């Protein structure tokens, strides 16, 4: 495994990491900051699982800014192939070279020449391995959307920070990338992937953390309005209300809702404005329909 590169941007301790993340607008719970700190120090990938919208992807973006490392993103999807994650050959350039050299070189010489790095199109995994110190932040986003063969392909990278290219051999990281994998748990990941990673579950934030996030992201909103937003969304996610929805709003929806309410010059939440903007909190017709009859209950003062 490659040696860790000393950098002035690497946090000295968990408190320093928490402060640095807050400085770029990401309010992390201490358990999450501890997991990230250990991922940096131990040079281990970090697997983040949780409901959509709880801040998994945003954490990678925040760490890129905090650590001053380039962010590389691999968005996973069903049917993803290795060449889309690692590399592929520039076949057009190879063909042009072969045509130009066919009268002056032997077939063996041509074959050696066309499989050189200058004909390699680097995808996120290979880019991450070849990023100079202090290395990159690699986000492997929604890995649960890819299939099991793709998970098996990732094992060499996750375990050893290296990949094998048949024509070139084994390529090892110049500096260990900080690798963040995210999963919405649409399916269970292979145990072999999990064993190679540190793990952290991200839940919806409590009211105080959500309040800090909304205030930081939407400073134009009044203190009273942000308090109402945080209280309303917290109650949406709690029983008995949460049972009525297919998916509760995430942090992203809270922030977008706050921006929309500010754009509408809203001073205080009322049933009419909630009904008119319900499509920001929920993306399913059934969830919007379930919300409408319970708006008054959700706005009722806490006992």
From TrEMBL:
Residues 42-206 form the AAA+ ATPase domain. One of its GO terms (molecular function) is ATP hydrolysis activity. Coiled coil: none annotated. Keywords: Hydrolase. It comes from the Bacteria. CDD domains: AAA. The keyword rRNA-binding does not apply. Its EC number is 3.6.1.3. It holds the Pfam family AAA_5. The keyword Membrane does not apply. PANTHER family: MAGNESIUM-CHELATASE SUBUNIT CHLD, MOXR FAMILY PROTEIN. This is ATPase. It comes from Hydrogenophaga intermedia.
